Automatic annotation (TrEMBL):
It comes from candidate division WOR-3 bacterium. Keywords: Cytoplasm, DNA-binding, Repeat, Transcription, Transcription regulation. Its main location: cytoplasm. InterPro entries: MraZ, MraZ_C, MraZ_dom, MraZ_N, MraZ_sf, SpoVT-AbrB_dom, SpoVT-AbrB_sf. It is found in: Cytoplasm, Nucleoid. This is Transcriptional regulator MraZ. Gene3D superfamilies: Transcriptional regulator MraZ domain. Belongs to the MraZ family.
Length: 165
């Protein structure tokens, strides 16, 4: 089963750019020292963190039909030029490359935010601004999720339909 990340955790970044992955995320990753994670810099300032095993699934879904033989590889370059592969050390930390930290506006404090099949690393202030700026979108998304859940529950327990756990 794929890991599912939720919650938020605050951590410090050391002077070398290393940050400890929250223990609850490490448990879900099943990562061992030396294992690989994929960091993907986002235009909104987030750094998405994908388990390496799931990265190819993301890549194949994100860029359908693009191959290394296509003349126009702008989409591939735009996405893959913002990706770094990192390894988890014995203390459960990863080294985020300095250019990626700078582009994300990260200096000494970060927030890890679960996002389902991946998690994100944010500068704390940028994360807070993003939450305020997108409060309406969060409310709308929650309303849609709650509606889908109610519909699913009603469908499962409809008359004449056996209960599905």
């Amino acid at each position: 089963m794929k890991p599912f990340f939720y919650g938020k955790h605050y951590h410090s970044v050391d002077s070398k750019g290393r940050v400890a992955i929250p223990s609850s995320f490490r448990r879900k990753l099943g990562q061992e020292p030396g294992d690989t994670l994929i960091l993907h810099a986002r235009p909104d300032g987030a750094i998405r963190v994908h388990p390496a095993a799931d990265w190819m699934d993301f890549w194949e879904a994100a860029l359908p039909g693009i191959t290394r033989y296509q003349d126009d590889s702008d989409d591939a370059r735009r996405l893959l030029g913002e990706v770094e592969e990192v390894t988890v050390d014995r203390q459960g930390r990863v080294l985020i490359p300095r250019p990626m930290l700078e582009e994300a506006g990260i200096s000494d404090q970060v927030v890890f935010s679960g996002a389902g099949e991946y998690f994100e690393v944010w500068d704390v202030d940028r994360y807070k601004r993003n939450r305020v700026e997108n409060a309406d979108k969060r409310r709308d998304a929650l309303a849609v999720a709650e509606k889908r859940y109610r519909e699913m529950r009603e469908t499962r327990h409809a008359p004449g339909r056996p209960d599905v756990p």
